[in-house]
Amino acid sequence: MRPNRLADGAVHLWWINLDTGLADTSALSMPELERARGFRTERGRARYVVAHAAVREILAHYADTDAASLSIVSQPHGKPCLAATPAGPTVPAFSLSRSGDWAVLAVTQDSEIGVDLEIDGSVPDRAAMLAALTPNERDAAAMLDDDALTSAFRVAWTRKEACLKAAGIGFAVDPSEVEVSLDGAPCSIRVPSAPGASLVYGSLPVHVVTLAPNQGRTVSLARVGVPITTAQVVQFDMSRYHSLPSRHKTNPINKSGAFKCAESLQS
Ligand SMILES: CC(C)(COP(=O)(O)OP(=O)(O)OC[C@H]1O[C@@H](n2cnc3c(N)ncnc32)[C@H](O)[C@@H]1OP(=O)(O)O)[C@@H](O)C(=O)NCCC(=O)NCCS
Fold first, then answer.
1. 68 by DSSP, 3-state: which?
2. Residue 180 domain-assigned?
3. 181: domain CATH number?
4. What pLDDT digit, counting tens, does each position of 43-87 carry?
5. What atom of ligand 1 comes closest to residue 48's alpha carbon?
6. Which residues form the domain of 73?
7. Ligand 1 in reach of 161 Cβ (< 6 A)
């Protein structure tokens, strides 16, 4: 198996359909199996398993190992990362978001990345949406009618989460303290620090972009220290992947049906 080298500054964004009906647990770690067992519904469990099995298959290519032996560890606030191996190639940074029947996995090299996906559905009421914003964002949002506020909120919320995930601190910092632009234009922000955070992100700006909304899905990407100018978007189909001959599994971004390169986004 050959590792897939990420070019300098490249971001690969993988779309993973979670309702493929192939919930294979064989590559999952003990903690992943334990989490899978904790889901109340079979559908929730299957989606979690498909997401984590796919993440392992995809990252295994970059790290030049196999999915089951990939060592994924947690940072202090819960951000997963690949454990570095002294002999192995430089491991990429990644971020996962799951919403409904889809997951997105963002992968890049040499900088921390965060991604957040929201699929259109119920949103909080107007007061709750405004409460999740900073005072400046609230002023801008106050002029918007309900539909415009809902769209702006989805953009803002995915941006805030993407930034908090890039910084590795998750909800240890309240999203209402993270100021992003509501209009979807690329922006650079400072994320407030969190106690016990292991990452050195405080001195660097976090750059955030929002992809053009597509089929009711809003996705924002954030990267620490390095602006995001393009993202190569790839669709991953787990059941088609499993039916591929192994010679076609050597490069994640290839031309087979399991890795359909949908578009290259200019942000
Ligand atoms: C990550 C978080 C910000 C967003 O979660 P969400 O919107 O519900 O869910 P998403 O699907 O967008 O993201 C979840 C994924 O983010 C990743 N993640 C978890 N914690 C993270 C963190 N601190 N930073 C970045 N990514 C994180 C995981 O890959 C997770 O996937 P999984 O649930 O399949 O394992 C929120 O769940 C959070 O703050 N978690 C931290 C939990 C925590 O503090 N744990 C204590 C450890 S001591």
1. helix
2. yes
3. 3.90.470.20
4. 999 999 999 999 999 998 888 888 999 999 998 899 999 987 665
5. 34
6. 13-266
7. yes
